[in-house]
Amino acid sequence: MLLRKLPYALTVCKVLSPAEINLYADFFFIGKTDEELSLVCITSDVPVHTTNRNDGWRGFRIEGELGFAPVSSLSLLSALLFDHHIDIFAVSTFNTDYILVKEAQFDRATGVLEKEGYVIQ
Asked: Model pTM greater than 0.90?
C-alpha cells in the first residue's frame, strides 16, 4: 500500500463560525456536530479566532480510492501505530483516509510503516 507524506504542518482546532474558515485553502477538513465546529488545516491557514487549537501535526494520505471495505486500511494502520505507542488523529473522505501523527513521532511512524511493508513517498 502506498502512503504519501503531506508536505505541510497541520493544526487541529475549534472555531466558532464557518465564516472564519478559508474555503479556498488548499487543504482542510471541517467537522460539525451539535457540540462543536472542528477544523483540520495547514497551520498557516488557521483562523485568527479559534477557541482551542493543537499544532504540530503531520500527515499521511492513503493513496487510491479505498471504497467502503469491511476492514479498512485505516483500522489496520491505526492498530499498527497503536501497537508502537504512536497516537494518531484520523480523517476520512469519500475516497480515502488520512492519518495524522504529532511531528515528534512522524519519523518513527514512517519507520514503523516502512518496516511493515508500506511504501511511503
From this structure: no
